[in-house]
């Protein structure tokens, strides 16, 4: 759904349900739609990304409707978009592509299967980190801005060339807003989206928010921990973004191996508390005082 001001200005896009079962994003977008968010200048586009997957939602198997053929959030590299391959999600990505290619600012709403404190995730571009910091600097919103170097398995929406081009202008940011299917996750998504719309022009023109009422925490992913065996288990049911103070703390066991934190103040990012063999179990992140520049 597109809301046009009729005047030149930033092209602002909010996406939800890129993963079909994350319907908190659908609720948040519906709340926004009802308020008809016509901007003073520019354009706002709200996108429900994977309704075909959601159509198959079944309460008894809620994870089965994350996607239909493949993960829509791994397809955004030109090598996939321009390929001859066909899938339900590739078709949808190609449909949405014109809206993404013209976006100056993108907010992509997500939720998690396991408990995690909300956080922003940005690709390794300073302009996107600035966007997330602008969102995170309002009291009551998530304070952690995490930069990573991509996800194994393919490019996410926030890594589309529009946002990755060196010297480009498109800014993108992903919000992990909390647990799937929890009402408060919708509230977090809505608050962040409203902040995003309110500060869009400031961020677009200056890279900073006008109103800042809380400090932001920056972190960078340093390690992906994959379950090497079927016996992988965490020593505690860690909540996402937990900070482990001491290096060398055992956080999980994998067969005969103990998985330890490699440095002090190590953040555990969105742990998957029951990873299958070969799956990503947790990502480790280090606090940093400066942006990862590029
Ligand atoms: Zn998701």
TrEMBL record:
<dbReference type="Pfam" id="PF24827">
    <property type="entry name" value="AstE_AspA_cat"/>
</dbReference>
<keyword id="KW-0479">Metal-binding</keyword>
<dbReference type="GO" id="GO:0005829">
    <property type="term" value="C:cytosol"/>
</dbReference>
<dbReference type="InterPro" id="IPR055438">
    <property type="entry name" value="AstE_AspA_cat"/>
</dbReference>
<dbReference type="GO" id="GO:0046872">
    <property type="term" value="F:metal ion binding"/>
</dbReference>
<protein>
    <submittedName>
        <fullName>Aspartoacylase</fullName>
    </submittedName>
</protein>
<dbReference type="GO" id="GO:0016788">
    <property type="term" value="F:hydrolase activity, acting on ester bonds"/>
</dbReference>
<dbReference type="InterPro" id="IPR050178">
    <property type="entry name" value="AspA/AstE_fam"/>
</dbReference>
<keyword id="KW-0862">Zinc</keyword>
<keyword id="KW-0378">Hydrolase</keyword>
<feature type="domain" description="Succinylglutamate desuccinylase/Aspartoacylase catalytic">
    <location>
        <begin position="8"/>
        <end position="198"/>
    </location>
</feature>
